[in-house]
Design goal:
With 144 residues, the chain is mostly helical. Helices cover 66% and strands 0% of the residues.
Length: 144
């Protein structure tokens, strides 16, 4: 949300500065910020974020039933994956869908990025990362 506000402010400021430096006789006090009519300027910040995430292959937050199945699948691999932090596990899973989207033919990269993303206080093996990736793909990633 802050990024969107900063971007819109930057665009408006750029328009004002362009008017100030123009050679068409426009004075600073006469300059008006440009009217922004792009979809990003008229859409809500949440909608913009959802659109960007969708374009990157990141799915929306799962419903309660899907979330519960996903958490159970992770805990079956290792209780240390979730470790009481379900929101973090869901966020990391959604980001992993983005990796799958960005590198659809590079399974080794998907596994390595999953291992890195989910490792924290505990390091996970490549075999565990493979299982985590399968759980993410099954429960969170958009079906194609």
């Amino acid at each position: 949300m802050k990024r969107t506000a900063i971007a819109l402010t930057t665009l408006a400021l750029a328009g004002v500065l362009a008017a100030c430096g123009s050679s068409d006789g426009v004075k600073v006090e006469d300059a008006k910020p440009p009217v922004l009519s792009t979809p990003a300027a008229t859409a809500s910040p949440d909608k913009v974020i959802q659109d960007v995430e969708r374009d990157r292959g990141i799915p929306p937050k799962p419903d309660a039933a899907t979330r519960a199945k996903y958490i159970r699948a992770l805990e079956a691999i290792s209780p240390a994956i979730v470790n009481g932090k379900e929101d973090r596990a869901v966020s990391r899973g959604r980001d992993t869908c983005g990796t799958v989207h960005s590198f659809p033919k590079d399974h080794a990269k998907q596994v390595d990025m999953t291992r890195q993303r989910f490792s924290g206080a505990k390091e996970f093996t490549a075999a565990q990362a493979e299982q985590i990736l399968a759980a993410v793909r099954t429960h969170l990633c958009p079906k194609k």
